[in-house]
């Protein structure tokens, strides 16, 4: 009679299971997606990463079986992209550029809209997102509430959180200030403006905080006085309401985005002020409408195409090597000077 307690040859083989793709990934210090991409001959992988994967394969003696080959042929190509404010020009342009960059690398973006003002709703949306067949995820994080949601959510795929708010090249790449705002202040200073009114974005938003700090730092450096400031919500309506509160002796209004600037221009017109003869107005982002309002809006141009490209490059770097190197070169910002800015008037009198 056969001793049923003695393992059969087949059971012994099971106990000595062959290495898997996950074993190779652990040994190489990369993700299983990176090993899969290596086996498919992906051209964009760093030589050092290739060497680590091949060394792990050789050490473990891993040989993909037919099932593994079939799985590699259907390797995940989805990238989850968590975004907010889809109706705004900045996010929509970044998404378009990121979509094109992802497609060029062989991936498809799946956009997951979030409500930046409702952390509970965003948390529920994020938890329902299907990570199973995704290669990675990227999140544009506008404020601390949403940042906390992502810190507390478990991800089984690489996740890149971009918390800069504007240029999405990384948390530390541009530093604590916004270079475009400095360009605006320098431009107004050269035109003789010494008293300005500021319309900021929402207090809790990281991008709004950066522009606020940049404004006050540049104003102090140049000897410009911020004689009034209001926080809006990025909308033209809030820009309109804010401009109604502008002190009479302010000679320039600086808005943290173009929508608020355009709303402010409408309010100033209703108050009987002429732009730029009585007051100069500037915006930020250089949306398509900015050049068509009357007068055409002076604004900071942000290279959203570069932003989207850099975002995908950073995510693929994270997927391949489990780390991301912060870039010292920020996304370019330039000042586009149009008709809404001019020399400061000699008299500080303003109609009520």
Structure description:
The strands form two sheets. The protein has a six-stranded mixed sheet, with helices on both faces. It has a four-stranded parallel sheet with strand order 2-1-3-4, with helices on both faces. Helix content is 42%, strand content 16%. The chain is α/β, with parallel strands linked by helices. It contains 13 helices and ten strands. It has helices spanning 9-15, 21-28, 32-39, 47-60, 66-73, 89-104, 119-128, 144-152, 179-190, 206-222, 236-243, 258-270, 304-321, and strands spanning 78-84, 108-114, 134-140, 159-162, 195-200, 225-231, 252-255, 280-285, 298-302, 333-336. Strand 5, helix 10 and strand 6 form a beta-alpha-beta unit. Residues 1-15, 166-174 and 348-352 have low confidence and may be disordered. It is elongated, with a radius of gyration of 27 Å.
